[in-house]
Amino acid sequence: MVPDPEKLVFVADDDPAVCALVGRWLELAGYETISFQSGEACFQALFEDDPAAVLLDVEFPGQSGLEILELIRSSHPHLPVIMLTGDEKVETVVRAMRCGAFDYLTKPLDRGRLLTTLHNAMEQLRLSARVAQLEREVSGGYEGIIGDSPAMKQVFRQLDRLSRSDVTVLIRGESGTGKELIARALHESGARKRGPFVAVNSAAIPEPLLESELFGHERGAFTGAVDRRIGKFEEANRGTIFLDEIGELSPVVQARLLRVLQERTFNRVGGSATLKSDFRLLSATHRNLAKEVEEGRFREDLYFRLAVFDLEIPALRKRPEDIPAIALHFVRQYAGVTNSAAHAISPAALQMLVGWSWPGNVRELQNVIQRALVVADATEIQPRDLPEKMRNGAGTTANSPLPDGVAADTGTLEEASRNLMLQALERHAGNASAVMRELNIGRARFYRMLRKYDLESRIGEFRLAK
Question: Can 143-314 and 318-465 be said to share one CATH topology?
Fold first, then answer.
């Protein structure tokens, strides 16, 4: 019988008596348990089963429980881990909490406290999942991806469908459009979210090392292979592997990847043992792979395996209505980090951002905002804080439609500012607090702008219309 992930608890302790006692307590309380006599075995089992929590002893021969805790935090960051310890030293407890333990229990264990702590850990996990869901619903985005344009809403609808299956997805889009962010969102919203997300940039790894990176190698497989190494496909067991820049793979690696997708088995470099891994493959490219196939640079059979579902991410210039929200997100994200005087964007600067063509897409916008925050000397990012090429208008485009009321001509600043306020009021049905949050302005300034642009009555109108 397959364990119920919502009731399954891993118990790892090198004392069989402790495992038996704790297992009995938990089973009587309605949980299912799997016991391990070593931390390493417990960690490896996380890639085969999806427990709701882990009870982990601090002291083990070999790798300590704290070392195993660090491994779990890196591969399963949201999984609650409760440490079991006979050592009540303050430094042990402090280190456990700093490493990300949910809580710790001292031996001899108290049944009541154990069950209460476990209940609290699992309740926190459920609440975190619910909060994430509500934030997604309120923001109008998807797993941290910002976008309210028709193009991005279509992407989000596709992600919703794709999250309910294990289908292989090829994510296409220009550089900087956020293909890895999309892949992570797909992983986090799917059934494998408790498993690892393993990302590999195929273009960043020298070809002679890429096979070893993907499939691992045995000791002595080549010069410098002094130890056995686990490859990315093994790491991705029970999770997702994301291969970025898939179009850069050599014919040799393409052939090996095709075999992995067909048979779900592979060998480490220099090894003879056949290994299996249960993974979902997501890949991405900025290239036109169909054209690469036509020109003989990419295997057709591999292309069809990768593109079971073809997901295209629109360029930023094709969804300019999303630019203000994304820009303000980056301001909030980096203002504190950069100790910037600015915590908002002036209408004139925002107008320039919306009118820019963004050849580097969201990544370019992120860099522009970070730079602007560093050089800004006012409470708002001003046009003078933006790159000179943007101020000169060399990269503005008339081909990409701008949001209503936001013109590329800086001579219409008053009208642009009024329309930005009006559109925010419309989006939030006259909710003053929501508008202030979106535009990142204080209450006094908000009402000054309402009076200045004769929009005070609109709050009541929108409320009545709603």
Answer: no
